[in-house]
Request: fold
Amino acid sequence: MLEMLRQRRSIRQFETRPIPEALQAHLEEALLRAPTSRNRRPWEFIFVTDPALQQRLAACKPHSADFVAHAPLTVVIAADEATCDVWIEDCAIAAITLQYTAQTLGLGSCWVQVRLRDHDENTTAEQYIRDTLCLPPHYRVSAMVALGYPAEQKQGVAQSALTRSKIHRDRFGTPPCTKP
Ligand SMILES: Cc1cc2nc3c(=O)[nH]c(=O)nc-3n(C[C@H](O)[C@H](O)[C@H](O)COP(=O)(O)O)c2cc1C
Reply:
C-alpha cells in the first residue's frame, strides 16, 4: 500500500484505449466495498464512457474539468443526502478508494470537485450534472473521478517534499504546548 502511495499522482492525460470490462468490474467492486457511516451506503456511482456525455461532463464547471472530455471512463459519485448525514465523507472515501484501486491496476485518475462549484452564474455544477445524467433532484453530486491508462509520466512526491510539520505528537505544535 505504501509503495503504491509513493508512486501515486493525479493523472489528467489518458491514452485513448478503453479500460477493459474486467478492470471496470474491479473498480465497481472496490467502490462497493468502501466503508460508510452506519453502513448506510448512501452513494450511487455512474460509470460514463459515452464520449458525448464525457464532453458534457467536462463542461460542468469553467475550470479544472476539461480533461474529463478525453478520459475513457468517468465515475460520477452522487448520494441521497436523506439517507445519511455524513454522505460527503462517505462519497469522499469511495472516491479515494476508487483512485487507489485504479493505481494498483495500472490506471491513472484525477478527482474533479463538483460539490460547491458553479457551472455558471445561474446553475451549480451539481445541478448541471443532475440534468445531464437524469439524476433525481434529491441526489447530491460530490465529485467525479476521471480514469484511464496514463499518457503522462509523473514522479511520486519525494520524501523530502513531505510536509512533516503537519504531524504532531500528543499535543499540537513543535515543540508541543505544555498545558496539563
Ligand atoms: C477534494 C479534491 C478536489 C480536487 N478537485 C480537483 C479538480 O476539480 N480538478 C483537478 O484537476 N484536480 C482536482 N484535484 C486533484 C488535486 O489538484 C491534486 O490531488 C493535488 O494537486 C495534489 O497532486 P497529486 O494528486 O498529483 O499528488 C482534487 C483533489 C481533491 C482531493
Observations:
- Residues 9-10, 12, 64, 110-113 surround flavin mononucleotide (CB under 6 Å).
- The chain has one domain: 2-155.
